[in-house]
Amino acid sequence: MINTLNKIFFAISLFVFAACNSEEKNGEPIEVKNGIVPIAYNKTGNGDTALVFVHGWGINKEYWKSQADEFSKRYTVVTIDLGGHGKSGTQRDHWTVDDYANDVMAVLDSLNLNKVILVGHSMGGDVILDIAFKIPDGKMKGTFIWEPLNTWEFIFDKDGKANELLKLYPEMAKKYDVKLLK
Q1: Distance between CA atoms of 149 and 129, rounded to whole angstroms?
Q2: Of the four listed, 103, 119, 138, 147, which is most buried by Cβ atoms within 10 Å?
Q3: What total number of domains does the chain contain?
Q4: pLDDT at residue 20, rounded to an integer
Q5: Is-contact 107 77, C-beta < 8 A?
Q6: Closest to 177 in 3D by CA, of 127, 140, 151, 133
Q7: Span 24-52, mean pLDDT?
Q8: Helix (H, G, I), strand (E, B) or coil at 51
């Protein structure tokens, strides 16, 4: 009888420990901060691959609601309010692409996301390009940029000739095993 009670107690203790150490408690998101700035996000779905959506300037994570609703059927989907946007904090003196990239990295690290595909719109495209060079090998599966803010100005000169930055695309494609369109 005592042996059975010990087994039951152990099983209950293990269950409580697992529940208390889960990534999200009671369905509530875990708190994420980049320094002192709280970063708001929504996480839906539970697929092996995580799609992380990064909005452009003056928008917020709600911009991606339709995409999150659809993709969460197959993937883990995370939409982020960059610092100073939506429900994220504003306790910062500067607002650079690097700061925003660190906002996203804080979420990726806090949620322990692997097999990440970053999706960015406008300024969010610049942010995810910054992350692409920082993220540890093996964590990222790819990027998708929709209407990047500065890409064309940085890659092509005023006469439409490509500059040295265009050479980065094949290097990144090779690193992330991406097939380039020809």
Answers
A1: 11
A2: 103
A3: 1
A4: 37
A5: no
A6: 140
A7: 85
A8: strand
**Minimal CA–CA distance to 40: which of 92, 100, 81?**
81
Q: Is residue 157 part of a domain?
A: no
The string of DSSP codes covering 91-139 is: --S---HHHHHHHHHHHHHHTT--SEEEEEETHHHHHHHHHHTTSPTTT
What residue type is assigned to position 158 of the chain? K
CA distance 42 to 129: 22
Q: Tell me, yes or no, whether 53 lies in a domain.
A: yes
Q: Where residue 68 sits, what CATH number does that domain have?
A: 3.40.50.1820
Residue closest to 72 by CA, chosen among 108, 47, 40:
47
Residue 109 lies in a domain: yes
16 lies in some domain: no
Range of the domain at 143: 29-149
Non-local CB neighbours of 175 within 8 Å, separated by 6+ positions? none
Provide the token pair at 110. 């806090």
Give this prediction's pTM.
0.69
- pLDDT tens for 92-151 read 988 899 999 999 999 999 999 989 999 999 889 889 988 987 887 777 787 777 765 555
